Amino acid sequence: QVQLVESGGGLVQAGGSLRLSCAASGSIFSINAMGWYRQAPGKQRELVAAITSGGSTNYADSVKGRFTISRDNAKNTVYLQMNSLKPEDTAVYYCNADLLQGWGMDALDAWGQGTLVTVSS
Length: 121
Known about the structure:
Elements: E1 2-7, E2 10-13, E3 18-26, E4 28-39, E5 46-51, E6 57-59, E7 67-72, E8 77-82, E9 91-101, E10 106-111, E11 115-120
Parallel strand pairs: 2-11
Antiparallel strand pairs: 1-3, 3-8, 4-5, 4-9, 5-6, 7-8, 9-10, 9-11
């Protein structure tokens, strides 16, 4: 079994910062891309940022220049530093990992349980 456990969500005022963390554990052979998605009430889940095992990153236009994704491959952990937060960033943030589990033959698209980020105006 593979688990992704997120932490770091909460309530913050507009202009403030939060740092999300997501640790993957279990029977993991390797992790390719890791990323953060978010889903606001009444909206579809959207990609916020992603990072490959080699460190290449991709960001949604709405967060470029404000959010930074990083990872620690030794700890199977991905981070999302969120600065200059806006009320429209309010959403449940989900961690995602594209990985191989077990002996490397089973691909898995794993998701965390989500962590709520609320930005007040």
